[in-house]
Design a protein that fits this description.
Blueprint (H helix, E strand, L loop, with lengths): L2 H13 L7 H27 L10 E3 L17 E5 L7 E7 L5 E8 L5 E3 L3 E5 L2 E7 L13 E2 L4 E5 L2 E5 L7 E2 L11 E3 L2 E6 L4 E6 L6 E2 L5 E6 L2 E6 L2 E6 L5 E5 L10 E4 L2 E6 L2 E6 L5 E6 L9 E7 L3 E8 L5 E7 L5 E5 L2 E4 L2 E6 L2 E5 L2
Parallel strand pairs: 1-23
Antiparallel strand pairs: 2-30, 3-4, 4-5, 4-6, 6-7, 8-9, 9-10, 10-11, 12-13, 13-14, 14-15, 16-17, 17-18, 18-19, 20-21, 21-22, 22-23, 24-25, 25-26, 26-27, 28-29, 29-30
Keywords: Membrane, Transmembrane, Transmembrane helix
């Protein structure tokens, strides 16, 4: 999400009501002018930020200088699917979420000759054996809010203004989840449940699918991550793992109380977070452990926004430029301990790894 758009979203959330007519066009025009002024500096920073990763046989792994390692050295796919980014009218699919069933949820975007990326209206879905198809429209003033989506077995979720819209993957009617999302926090869909932060009630809320009854979770803190059935709610150094079905809670103590710059991600028995140049991967299994990977792509570069996603076998950190169609990712294999830096955005969910490759996305099962 562009920083100008994020500020607009935050201010609209505070004042309430619908945005004034034509606001989005003015925001995009101002952002495009600013992007062009920054382009040369941003591209130089992107070139300087590229780094390879090497394994250190202990708790800490460090990304060193040198040529990039081939992705196959860290992740060997059993089978893969290529998803084209090409959409009608010269637009390109920009993936926003990967589901544990391989579903890819995204938006259309245009990319000009200067590589400036501009998000367009609409929601598209693709996946194994399925070309991208449009499943819903979004309102004319929704674009500042289309910075995140969520794809799960029971629900596809996306923002339309400060409303969270929900569609069962098997088809049906698009519904609206209970009001309360303020446009600033991530929401999640995994397994049978949807989880989001209700700013009005100051509590995490959850429902089973799109039509299930909404419940508030009885836990203090802010929603940090979700991997069904566990929501992760953080308060300082304390992270509480909350089973959204049974309500059972487990306490996890973090190294410190600082907010990591790229946030948290969760998968089966794994919690990960990234702060500037360091990715921390913590195993929550019966034999808990913690591993650090240093030398993240574009670590500490404020022109890039970081994101952490966790699958069954890999953890992915992606650094995505706020304005340009440019990104780099680090893929960390939980089984081998090896890490690889690759060009483009990437996501992990369930058994799947999704990577951007030129004008397409490659979906693999590592």
């Amino acid at each position: 999400m562009d920083e100008i758009e994020r500020r607009v979203a935050e201010r609209l959330a505070r004042i309430g009501g619908a945005p004034p007519p034509g606001l989005h066009g003015r925001v995009v025009t101002a952002a495009r002018d600013r992007r062009r002024r920054r382009r040369r500096v941003a591209l130089l920073g992107a070139a300087a930020g590229a780094a390879a990763t090497a394994l250190v046989p202990a708790v800490v792994l460090t990304a060193g200088s040198g040529s990039r390692t081939s992705p196959a050295t860290a992740v060997t796919p059993a089978r893969d699917t290529v998803i084209s980014r090409a959409l009608p009218g010269g637009q390109r699919l920009r993936a926003m979420a990967l589901g544990s069933d391989g579903s890819v949820l995204g938006v259309p975007a245009t990319v000009d000759a200067e590589r400036v990326r501009v998000t367009q209206r609409g929601v598209w879905v693709a996946g194994p054996g399925r070309a991208a198809r449009r499943v819903a429209d979004t309102g004319p003033d929704s674009l500042p809010y289309l910075w995140t989506m969520a794809a799960g077995r029971a629900a596809y979720v996306w923002p339309d203004g400060t409303r969270l819209r929900c569609l069962p993957p098997g088809g049906g009617e698009v519904t609206t989840l209970r009001p309360g999302w303020d446009g600033r926090d991530r929401f999640y869909s995994d397994g049978d449940a949807v989880v989001w932060w209700d700013a009005d009630r100051k509590a995490p809320a959850t429902s089973l699918g799109c039509a299930g009854a909404v419940r508030d979770l009885s836990v203090k803190g802010t929603l940090a991550a979700f991997s069904f059935p566990h929501a992760y709610v953080r308060s300082g150094r304390t992270m509480r793992q909350v089973d959204v079905v049974s309500g059972r809670q487990t306490t996890i103590t973090l190294p410190d109380g600082r907010e990591p710059s790229a946030g948290f991600g969760a998968g089966p028995d794994t919690l990960a977070w990234a702060d500037r140049n360091v990715l921390t991967v913590r195993s929550l299994s019966s034999r808990p452990s913690r591993r650090e990977v240093r030398g993240l792509p574009h670590g500490g570069d404020d022109a890039y926004l970081g994101r952490v996603t966790v699958g069954e076998h890999v953890v992915v950190f992606s650094a995505v430029h706020q304005d340009l169609d440019d990104a780099s990712s680090l893929v960390h294999d939980l089984r081998t301990g090896k890490s690889t830096t690759v060009p483009g955005e990437a996501w992990a969910a369930g058994p799947y790894l999704l990577r951007q490759e030129g004008d397409g996305y490659r979906l693999t099962r590592p």
